[in-house]
């Protein structure tokens, strides 16, 4: 016996693991680029920071700060999203 969408019964909720998977995929994609920036900039600073001019080091530090702010923004949006529906 199949249930029709109009049978008065609420639809079955989407499995939690599917929702969790989609959330992780979305957040993961948003984190990949900033994390790569942090990784590359810290590597370059560690290898060459002592031979570069201070302006170049500061430029890489700013790149790291911007990437961290971008990741923080993504996390804040994810954490605020459920509250909007309340």
UniProtKB/TrEMBL annotation:
Name of the protein in question: Uncharacterized protein
Organism: Laspinema palackyanum D2a
């Amino acid at each position: 016996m199949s249930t029709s969408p109009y049978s008065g019964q609420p639809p079955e909720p989407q499995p939690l693991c599917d929702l969790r998977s989609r959330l992780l995929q979305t957040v993961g994609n948003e984190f990949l680029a900033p994390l790569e920036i942090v990784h590359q900039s810290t590597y370059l600073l560690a290898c060459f920071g002592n031979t570069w001019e201070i302006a170049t080091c500061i430029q890489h530090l700013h790149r790291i700060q911007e990437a961290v702010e971008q990741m923080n923004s993504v996390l804040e949006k994810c954490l605020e999203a459920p509250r909007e529906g309340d």
